[in-house]
Design goal:
mainly alpha; 4 helices; about 75% helix; elongated
Length: about 100
């Protein structure tokens, strides 16, 4: 049950991080969905989860579950970092904008 509680702490923090990225906008028209902000929020949440797992490794007695959680966090971290660093989403957005005009 502790793993469920752990992820119940991490998930709202990701949502709050995503909201904090959007708070520094001057016009309400700029408050649009941003995949980049979403990937950064996921990356920061996963990084926080990895740090918390390293610091609290003795709290969770199931070593197999600990390794599975680390592996999942590293996979999600690598995926969000790849999506941030590659220009796939920017290319898709550019292609959609070209179709409109």
């Amino acid at each position: 049950m502790r793993n469920g509680r752990f992820f119940a702490v991490i998930t709202p923090s990701r949502v709050i991080l995503f909201g904090l990225f959007s708070r520094n906008k001057y016009l309400t028209g700029h408050l649009l969905w941003s995949e980049t902000r979403a990937y950064v929020a996921v990356l920061m949440g996963v990084t926080m989860a990895i740090i918390m797992l390293f610091n609290r490794v003795s709290m969770y007695s199931n070593k197999t579950m600990n390794m599975a959680n680390f592996a999942k966090a590293l996979i999600v971290c690598g995926g969000s970092l790849w999506k941030l660093r590659s220009q796939v989403t920017a290319d898709l957005h550019r292609r959609d904008m070209d179709r409109r005009f």
